[in-house]
Amino acid sequence: MKKTDYKYLNDGFEGVLYDTENNDDKLLIVIQGLKGLELPEKYAKLFSGKGYSTLAMSYYGGEGQKKDIRAIPLEQFEYACNEMKKHGYNRIGIYGNSKGAGMALLAASVLPDISLVIAASSFGHIMQGTGKASEDPCRAMVSFKGQDFPYVEKGKLFSVFLKRCLKEHKVQLLYFFDEWDKKGTEENEIPVEKINGDILFLTSTHDESVPAKRDAELLVERLKRKQFTHRFRHVNSETGSHNLGYFPVNNKMLPREKKFPDECQKAREDTLELIMNTLDKWAV
Q1: Which of 84, 104, 123, 170 pairs as cysteine with 96 (C-beta 3.0–4.6 A)?
Q2: Cα(191)–Cα(59) distance, rounded to whole angstroms?
Q3: Are 31 and 55 in contact (CB under 8 A)?
Q4: Whole-number Å distance between alpha carbons of 191 and 170
Q5: Which residues make Cβ contacts (< 8 Å) with residue 204, sequence separation at least 6?
Q6: What pTM, to 2 d.p., does this model score?
């Protein structure tokens, strides 16, 4: 196993390559919703241990990178793909969880070098970014070549969120993002039809953080409507939580994880098996 570090200020992207040195031309990029490389590297060690060279990446929060999710430059993934091709990796896939899943779909929508996307618990619309206008003229959560994306404005959501909590007699993060997501239109959906490869959507009926199941169904319908020519699949878990990734985060904050820990863990194991089967069958 050979490890190589990349720094945003020097290389245009932040990451660690776990090269299995097995002469396979496939590479998997792994990103997560949290900033930093600690969690992506856990996955890189997992997948490289199973024979897949993996690039753990962090797309915000590092030195020189955006501190907020505002106008995150998708060029980072372009620089990463170009560098990986220099190492002989001609088939490049990307896997993300939660916020990282949406970023994976967005990166693949502008980069034809990415021929496989695995998106677990993803959002389906491009949202307005956080941070101040002085930080970047682009207002969406991502940008490419300095261009903004159509986005769902946040508006005055907090009062709507509170009303939902009162109506449901409980406080749940899902309500905030659900109400925000409902404001989305076809114009600001992630343009998944532009992806140059296969797509696997992974969701849970009991996601208490984002309306990932509904959004995956929305994006699948978009793919059908746009006559997408590659393979796509949506697999929904009836037992898991928002944390479908093998290394869960913030489980103590999710009621389903507290109530059904064994079922949620089994869902993660099943999801990992599904991901491995997808990687094994990845041919393009």
Answers
A1: 104
A2: 20
A3: no
A4: 34
A5: 121, 212, 213, 236, 237, 238, 239, 240, 241, 242, 244, 267
A6: 0.96
